[in-house]
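Shipment paperwork, digital attachment
Item: protein structure file
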Amino acid sequence: MFSGLCEQWLSKGWRAICKFFVRRQRGPSKKDLDRQGETIAEEFLKKAGYKILGRRVRLGQVEVDLLAMEEDVLVAVEVKTRTHKSQLVAFWQIHAGKRRRLKRALEAAAKKMGQGLSGLRCDVILVIVRGSARPEIFHYKNVPLQS
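Attachment content:
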């Protein structure tokens, strides 16, 4: 109601002040949406048989959303969370520089882990969240790390 009064009766300057104090209710913040997507992706991977090694793991200059093992393959997982399907394919939202850094980071992590790895891989999971509807999950395996 106060917001409506501001719109009707007050001058432009006062309207701006009222808008500052009376915010419209919006959806979750980008940070909250990202965390929600990471949680959904983590549960998805666990159900698919992956062992989660860490969440928001820093490998050198790169932060990996999820670090996991699928059998004896080390997998860095980038999670992209969106609110609608009309987004670009998730792979293209990871710029070439980050893909190169991811490759180097995975190689460094593999050296630290030592023997027993048969491979390294980068996956991208796109999570579409729409209110209370069941989230849609698209898992892109073995995303090329070369541009």
